[in-house]
Specification:
By secondary structure, this protein is mainly alpha-helical. The protein has helices at about 5-25, 25-40, 45-55, 60-80, 80-95, 95-105, 115-130, 135-145, 155-165, 170-190, 200-210, 215-225, 230-240, 255-270, 275-285, 290-305, 310-325, 330-345, 350-360, 365-370, 375-390. The chain has one domain (about 1-390). The protein is about 80% helix and about 0% strand. It is globular and about 65 Å long. It starts with a helix and ends with a helix.
Length: about 400
């Protein structure tokens, strides 16, 4: 059965890619990949035990709670008008180009599906008034929002990174922050947004502070090493009840819950069946570098799905087997898998944010991808710097 490890895992990945193309649902595709992997590896007997491990695992429920809390907070900020108030204050406090960059960047602190569309109308209005061309405005809105995903601890994929690796969210924030800084600063220089000069308007700054207060409280709680799931859930519930946004309390994203269930199931299956260790052993015997696996797999899956969690979730359990075997240390594996997952999604023609905003601004999405090439290179430089620090 050991000899079937590589064949079974690759068969699972291929079945996942085909399933995504046919049924367009990542969560079902991951379930299919798990079943195919079990069938080809002749390890069907571990399907049940790995499922039981999953539904009795505290990490799984903590991630579910965090994701629910983030979406609830996002919905309530929209319903209360605080998101809109935030955007108006940013526009009033900075010049046009800086507002176009800062609005998506700061609202990127709060992840939401198709989130770049939230700032798109405001960015479009400013761009029109300031003669910023549509492709550039679309690219700035898209890039500065997603620059936050390289390091920000409220993104579902980064929460998943912490859950699967056991590295705390605070530590991941500090480790991956240089990548985000290279992405943000590189993009800021490339788009010629200029030196920031702050306007001294106490009323506007007060309103800006109030509009993002729940996010600031979450940041303080996580940095203070309080349980992330507890901080997010408590803040989001208090904020929701304060604004009487009761309708969104039952707005449960079942597809996201299923995605997390199947991700944890797949991870537990390849661990319990010892398939991950056998996979590493096979590749080592054949002389294949594990680095190729942890770079190419997430970027391809990210490109195909347009979802960061998918590329990371499928690759990370396999990548962890390299750690268990002592081939690569944990931090470089985690950062590499996460970085290339984000990179694949940023360049993906099926990424929801890219599709929606390109259509909204009436521009060709590939012209937007071309426009962010230099900022992407800056992010890669940040990644290389982090790798050099942790490897050497």
């Amino acid at each position: 059965m050991k000899d079937l490890a590589v064949v079974s895992i690759l068969s699972g990945l291929i079945s996942m890619v085909i399933s995504i193309k046919l049924i367009k649902k990542v969560h079902w595709a991951i379930l299919i990949a798990t079943i195919v992997t079990a069938l080809v590896s002749l390890n069907l007997n571990y399907i049940g035990s790995s499922f039981l491990d999953t539904i009795t695992q505290s990490d799984f429920y903590e991630v579910i709670i965090v994701i629910f809390g983030i979406y609830l907070l996002s919905d309530t900020m929209k319903a209360s008008g605080n998101s809109q108030k935030f955007a108006k204050n940013i526009e009033a406090l900075f010049n046009s180009r800086q507002a176009v960059g800062l609005m998506p960047m700061l609202l990127g602190l709060l992840p939401m599906p198709g989130g770049a569309m939230f700032t798109a109308p405001m960015v479009k209005d400013i761009a029109y008034e300031s003669n910023i061309n549509r492709v550039e405005a679309t690219a700035m809105n898209y890039w500065f929002r997603h620059s936050m995903e390289f390091f920000w601890i409220l993104y579902p994929a980064l929460i998943l990174e912490s859950a699967l690796t056991g590295i705390s969210l605070t530590k991941l924030l500090l480790i991956q922050l240089p990548i985000g800084l290279f992405a943000i600063i590189g993009g800021w220089i490339y788009f010629k947004n200029g030196k920031i000069s702050l306007k001294k308007d106490k009323k506007l700054w007060k309103e800006l502070f109030e509009s993002i207060l729940p996010i600031l409280i979450i940041i303080i709680g996580v940095i203070a090493s309080l349980p992330g799931w507890l901080v997010v859930l408590t803040v989001s519930l208090i904020y929701t009840f304060y604004h009487k946004n009761y309708k969104d309390l039952l707005n449960i994203r079942w597809e996201t819950a299923l995605l997390l269930l199947f991700v944890f199931w797949y991870k537990n299956f390849v661990t319990v069946s010892n398939l991950s260790n056998d996979f590493v052993e096979n590749l080592t015997t054949w002389g294949v570098s594990p680095w190729w696996i942890i770079m190419i797999s997430p970027i391809i899956i990210g490109l195909i799905t347009g979802i960061t969690q998918a590329g990371f979730a499928v690759t990370m359990p396999i990548a962890l087997s390299f750690v268990d075997a002592g081939v690569i240390s944990l931090v470089p594996v985690a950062v590499t898998t996460y970085f290339f997952s984000v990179l694949g999604v940023l360049l993906s023609p099926v990424h929801l944010c890219l599709l929606l905003t390109s259509k909204y601004f009436e521009v060709d999405m590939f012209s937007v991808i071309k426009k962010i090439t230099i900022p992407v290179f800056c992010a890669i430089m940040g990644y290389v710097g982090v790798m050099l620090f942790f490897i050497f």
